[in-house]
Amino acid sequence: MTPVLDIRGVSKYYPGVIANEDIDLTLHKGEILALLGENGAGKSTLMNIVYGLQQPDTGNIYINGKVVSLASPRDAIAHGIGMVHQHFQLVPDISVTENIMLGAESIRHGLLDRKKAAQRIKELSQRYGLDVDPAAIIEDLSVGERQRVEIVKTLYRDAEILILDEPSAVLTPQEVDGLFSIMQRLRELGKSMIFITHKLKEVMHIADRITVLRNGRVAGNAQPVTTSEKSLATLMVGREVDLTFEPAANVSGNLILNAQNVSALDDTGHLAVDSVSLQVCAGEIVGIAGVQGNGQSELVEVLTGLRRSHSGTVEIDGTDLTHQSPREFTERGESCHIPEDRHLHAMVADYSVADNLVLNTYRNAPFSHNGVVNRPAIRAQADSLVQAFDVRTPDINTPSGSLSGGNQQKMVVAREFSRPSKLLIAAQPTRGIDVGSIEFIHRRIVAKRDEGVAVLLISAELDEVLSLSDRILVMYKGRIVAEVVREEATREQLGLYMAGAK
Amino acid sequence: MPESIKRIARAVSSALLVPIMALIVAFALGAVVMTLFGDDPVAAYQGLYDGAFGSAKAWARTLLKTTPLILTGLAVAVAFKAGLFNIGAAGQFIIGTVCSVAVGIHFEGTPLLIHLPAALLAGIAGGMIWGAIPGLLKVYTGAHEVITTIMMNYIASLFAGWTVYAGGRQGQSPGPLWDPTARAISETPDVLTSAQLPLMGNPRLDLHLGIIIAPLAALLIWWLIYRTTFGFEVRTVGRNADAARYAGMYPRRTTVMAMALAGGLAGLAGAIETLGLNHKFAPEFGGSVGFEGITVALLAQTHPLGVVFAAFLLGSLEAGASRMQFESGVSADIIDVIQALVLIFVAAPLIIRSLWPGKRSSLAAGTKTQ
């Protein structure tokens, strides 16, 4: 049978960079092909070529056996290719119907025919189990719903081949399950999909076949039934990856972080943290598991001074820091914080790597004296941290916003780990970054623990919590609903707690 | 090292592209407008040049026009660095004037070395307070600084008018700074010589010490913004206030301090303008120097040293305008048109960048490559 999409020998070069080289990739009708690779492996370039956003330097693309030239997304759409971008391309303050019609308007008597479009959206939505309300306004929809609107948008344009660019990166675990059942339904009804990801578990779960890219080339092809997560990770990274760690050897018992009955409101004034008490001792990692949005973010903000609690106390190593500013937490509490939202809190995107590396130490010697910045000391610090933490950047003057997500995160980690500390609060420390960087950051966190630092780890990735923590707390609707020691923790049991079932 | 020099050269040339192109396009369009109205643009621009640089007197005029623009330009640029749009340089300028005059007309017999700095500092302090108020309103009530600084401009202007009010026939009391010897005219007396900025060179050129102070202030502000921890805080707050808080800075305090600094610079502009040149003020004296600070800051892309060049440019346009009108018959108002065009092109850099071949690719850079 002729493949619906066949990529033969595609190469794309940028000055000094091989984005894609001699790539072959085949997609059959009614198939989910996972395109796996680390950030920078060339997945996005390849898919931009297929979607007509970029043109290959060499090679051909065949659709249903015929060679095609894709000079723009318009050509790609005309050939039945649809793309769901990681960053949604939706106008927030207009309706679902209007968003979907944009660029593919149905017109009657010179006016937009919203009724006809809405009817068609409803049909598509029912047929594929997408549950999209044509009249809803985009900004009222959850992330998962917006993603379904994007999927309807491609179907509305008669896409036969759907490219899903890291669709699970923005979703909660339940929403991921929902997405997967939609993908299965699409597959049953004969659509073909390319699923871009770097999450191995998802690949094993949903893909029919897997193509792994590394450094712009195809590193290998595999099928979930005959491969393992470990061998996929090896293909992706190019070496063996080990994400398992020994538990803490010696918990000293010195109480470092002591939060008692902490309650706090979220930005909309609702109770987000409901009398949470927790303790973290020197030399242990305490993990907080939970589905995103159950109060973890607000809890972390209270524990770092970014948010005022309305009741309860927070002590670090015996010092009462309740209601103190973030500066007091870092200086008097000697705590380090890897924030969950890199771009919101942890870095200034148009500052250089060097400036970001002293973002919260600039006021201390040797980086400044009497309020005057010491540039040579800042540069020296940057040089040594970039090297020690393997931050891949052209140089230390590069704006950090232009680094890949993994390298931005390593930069943040480098800064936080370079100061002496008693407490480390790491919130989603590896969100959205590649396996190689995840392994690196995990090793560093464990090394901190072994130095005797108290570590509080908050993660929506259950596997991350399970592999790193010595004790695990589960947060649900603002409360700690369970505490389990590492040896007794199982995915199933924690999953139930996270869903509020117990 | 050559690598870093290359990098700096690249950064500078890319930063200069927009302002320089904006000027060229604005002058070209100005010429088109003149031609459409039957005027001779060559004669006009020749007159403009003569008026700004044609003689020692012309040069002096240009420098005197440049001086306050440097300071009000800095007042706007510093606020921009902190992420604030200071429309209030005009009001801060007025308050600076009022305060420096209040000190300058009193304290007879004080030596110059005390009286002059005191008058200058009074102007700075008045401007700082006038700038800090919108800063405080912003951080404690959320009131937007664009609105509050505009309102503060009105208050400043009316307040200044009251201080020199000559009193009314029905016995309304005169303002505290009014000069009784001026009779019915509302104006202040001249500031005492001990509070006047000394003149340099030929006294007929009016070149007072302020023309040195202003560029020095720009240098100081550059150093403050790029070489001190306070400047680092200002820039961080301006770019990402959440990250600033996370990093242990105090964004509210920094915001108020940046606005106070901005106000102080505009206040200094007012003080220098009076202590150096006018020596007194009357109601409605503010003029447009505060608002032109916005053009200067934008043209300089908010860089403190760029402000000096941008102010010089605008200053020379203004210095040459009347000569241009005299020599070519073209109305001096065309200078306002050119200034407005420059502002539009600087504020909308995409217009300029799209005129520049080779830069177009970066415009279309909507796609992320990995």
Helices and strands, with pairings:
The complex is a heterodimer of chains A (502) and B (370).
Chain A: E1 5-14, E2 17-27, E3 32-36, H1 43-50, E4 58-63, E5 66-68, H2 73-78, E6 81-84, H3 96-101, E7 107-108, E8 111-112, H4 114-127, H5 143-156, E9 161-165, H6 173-188, E10 192-197, H7 200-206, E11 209-214, E12 217-222, H8 229-237, E13 255-265, E14 271-281, E15 285-289, H9 296-303, E16 311-316, E17 319-320, H10 326-331, E18 335-338, H11 342-346, H12 353-356, E19 368-369, E20 372-373, H13 375-388, H14 405-417, E21 423-427, H15 435-450, E22 454-459, H16 462-468, E23 471-476, E24 479-485, H17 491-498
Helix pairs in contact in A: 14-15
Chain B: H1 2-36, H2 41-53, H3 56-81, H4 89-104, H5 112-141, H6 145-163, H7 210-227, H8 229-239, H9 241-246, H10 251-278, H11 289-299, H12 304-328, H13 333-347, H14 349-355, H15 360-363
Helix pairs in contact in B: 1-13, 2-3, 2-12, 3-7, 3-10, 3-11, 3-12, 4-5, 4-6, 4-10, 4-11, 5-6, 5-10, 7-8, 7-12, 8-10, 11-12, 12-13, 13-14
Written description of the protein model:
The complex is a heterodimer of chains A (502) and B (370). Helix content of chain A is 32%, strand content 26%. Chain A is an alpha/beta fold and 502 residues long. Chain A has a 6-stranded mixed beta sheet, with helices on both faces. Chain A has a 6-stranded mixed beta sheet with strand order 18-21-22-15-23-24, with helices on both faces. In chain A, strands 2-1-4-5 form a 4-stranded antiparallel beta sheet, covered by helices on one side. In chain A, helix 14 (405-417) runs parallel beside helix 15 (435-450). The longest helix of chain A is centred in the middle third of the chain and has 16 residues, at 173-188. Chain A is globular and about 70 Å long. Chain A starts with a strand and ends with a helix. The model of chain A has no long low-confidence stretch (mean pLDDT 90). Chain B has a domain at 69-295. Chain B has helices at residues 2-36, 41-53, 56-81, 89-104, 112-141, 145-163, 210-227, 229-239, 241-246, 251-278, 289-299, 304-328, 333-347, 349-355, 360-363. Chain B is globular and about 65 Å long. The chains are: A alpha/beta (502), B mainly alpha (370).
